[in-house]
Amino acid sequence: MTSVKERLHKGYAQSMELSGKPLADEKSRYQRIKIFDTVANGRVMTLDNIVQITTRDESAYAEMLTHLPMLEHGRVERVMIVGGGDLSIADEALKHKGVKEVVLVDIDGRVVELCREHFAEINAKAFKDKRLKIEIADAFEYLGRPQSKGRFDLVIADRPDPVGPGKALFGETFYDRVRNALARGGFATFQTGVPFYQPWEITEALTELAGFFPQSGLYLTVVPTYIGGFMALSWAGKGATLGTPAGIKRAAAAYKKARLKTDYYNPAVHAAAFALPQWIKRLVP
Questions:
Q1: Domain shared by 137 and 22, yes or no
Q2: pLDDT(211) > 60
């Protein structure tokens, strides 16, 4: 295997040239897991041949799902991560000193094990942090447990595309469970696809979110490996709104005070993330 090809979008594919032999290639109970080094994108993990993370651009994804809502909220103590077995998002959340608990719930324990072995560059600190709790479980089921009710200030859905075991992490029942797990004033953030190739995901997600949350919306990031340009990140609030002038100003002050080390996120990027091109605005219901 000298290269890996990803075919996620109809009529389009991307190919990555490998650097050396694959580090992992196995079938877990749920999916095919591959980890390998590439010439242009650093270390990569694919699940069922769909790119999940690369060390070169993971910051553009993990930091925007995490720091943007956390800094606007200002008092996040408990975080739940749906999926996220590579621990890149957990690592970002744990950079906030006020956080007391980060609960990562991933259905595939083998993903967590392999990422601990091969992605130490981005997750070694997280694995050593006593505030991290890893639950190998169905996140959909976990959200419905009585002990999850009103527990979290932030829920981050690092969900895959809506295929295979990831299908349960989309749709109205999932959003209802996320709402119930949030504390008053809390936020939830969701991966919502690449609008250039998956425009329907924005319309469907925001329509469903509006049925369960008093506040919801969209912001953008750019992750080169997730082909198609902009990546859409949707958000929902339980009595709070993201992206207001006051919230953006508050986040900028909090960022400076916290002295966070980031590769993608900064206050200017935070503010700009809510500026939508006209063609994306038209996808918002």
A1: no
A2: yes
Per-residue pLDDT averaged across 93-111, rounded?
Answer: 98
Clarify whether residues 80 and 118 are in a common domain. yes
Give the number of other Cβ atoms within 10 Å of residue 68's Cβ: 26
pLDDT band at 55 (very low <50, low <70, confident <90, very high): very high
> How confident is the model over 166-188, as pLDDT tens digits?
444 445 689 999 999 999 999 99
261-269: list long-range contacts, CB under 8 Å, 24+ apart: 261/95, 262/59, 262/63, 262/67, 263/59, 263/60, 263/63, 264/59, 264/60, 264/63, 264/64, 264/221, 265/59, 265/63, 265/64, 265/67, 265/68, 269/64
CB 270 within 8 A of CB 68: yes
Indicate if 42 and 94 belong to the same structural domain: no
**CB-based contacts of 95, cutoff 8 Å, min separation 6:** 258, 260, 261
Q: Is 209 strand, coil or helix?
A: helix
Confidence of residue 159 (pLDDT cuts 50, 70, 90): confident
Distance CA 146, CA 142 (A): 9
- Residue (of 222, 220, 245, 224) closest to 235 by Cα position: 220
Residue 123 is part of which domain span?
Answer: 58-281
User: Which pLDDT belongs to residue 255?
Assistant: 98
Active site residues: 158
Q: What is the pTM of this model?
A: 0.95
What values do phi and psi take at 51, rounded to 5? -65, 130
Same domain, residue pair 68 and 152: yes
